[in-house]
Amino acid sequence: MSRTHDIFLIGNNETLEQAITDQLKEEFQFTHLSSQNLSYELKKHVVELAVVLNTDNESSSDLIQTVLSEFPKAFILYIDNESDFDLLREITRLGVSDYLVFPEEESVFRERIHMLSERLQSSRDRSTENFRRGGGKIFSFYSGQGGTGKSLIGSSFAQALKLESTANVLFIDLNTQYGGAETYLNVSSNRSLIDLLPVIQEINEHHIRNIATSESYSNLDVLISPRDAELAEKIGEDFVVRLLRACKRNYDFIIVDLPTWMEERTYTALSESDRIFYMISLDTAALRILKNVEDLFKQLAINTDEKLELVINFSGRENELTKKDLERFVTYPVAAKLRRDIKGVQAAVNQGAPLRKEAKEKKLTPVSKDIQGWVRSMLK
Ligand SMILES: Nc1ncnc2c1ncn2[C@@H]1O[C@H](COP(=O)(O)OP(=O)(O)OP(=O)(O)O)[C@@H](O)[C@H]1O
Ligand SMILES: [Mg+2]
User: Fold this and answer.
1) Is 185 in the same domain as 114?
2) I want to staple 314 with a disulfide (CB 3.0 to 4.6 A). Which of 77, 111, 282, 340 is the partner?
């Protein structure tokens, strides 16, 4: 039997499952994967054709995203009990091939599955690359040490990424107290992350774009943190997971500025990150702190393999150590080395302006130039 005839049924909905298997059990072989532990279960299979079922208390987009992040080329047919235009739009953007509402469209299901199965066969024959949206990357800026440039460099990195590419970029300040990034980017807004609290269970692109403010030179989208510590307490682990997953569906890059303090939010954002940029200066104190952070990451089971990269900041002649010394002590790759640029940074901060003002600026200050080089090499 050709492997086209394996269909994965994903999600929990007995009525829908019954309706589907009744129609097709003679022709196809079904494997059912529950929404619980889905990422883990998916690792045991090769999914090329999947039917995702509307599942109580689960976001359909999350289920689809989980499948597509593991198998970006899978063909997915989504089935719901009712039609929902916003959802349809969202999952189409994610890369879902087809969408049906049962029982109204039950009669066309068989035909649609056959069509997908044929498309799968021909795409196998051609073995073409099939680019799909929905896999935004989360890069977080972290350090176990305060004042290492997480906010300044993180926000300038996000701005540069926006200026140097056509990607959709979002910067999130997760400091939940005064973070500093707003000053560096010179944005202000009376809307903050806290305004997403009432809609967090069904958060979508609209909500995020409504709350985000835009940095005027680059059009970078920015989500700022509430200034009120009491309100900020309401932003927990669940909020951060839902927010970041929704952002992944709507942006190509999500840059997260984190506090030094290892709280639930920080931990969650680090776990959800595709890459962690750890800001470090070239001195022995910074190395000691990095070692402590490594222990903490181990205790908390935060996986840093192929995720953590060092960003050297405040580089200059007066540094106690060199990059070579650093590389002797740690095995993480160094993503970038950024110069200490007192004049350039101070001038921008004093003017209340971000480090860069346009895509083709004639004279960039040293730190902007270093960030530009880093971003360009990453985009290659
Ligand atoms: N490469 C650099 N050259 C000159 N000044 C810098 C550089 N990087 C950061 N700074 C300055 O260092 C100070 C600390 O930076 P920043 O606020 O970004 O650090 P942080 O790690 O976010 O701090 P916190 O832990 O308080 O959140 C700021 O005054 C900033 O302008
Ligand atoms: Mg900061």
Assistant:
1) no
2) 340
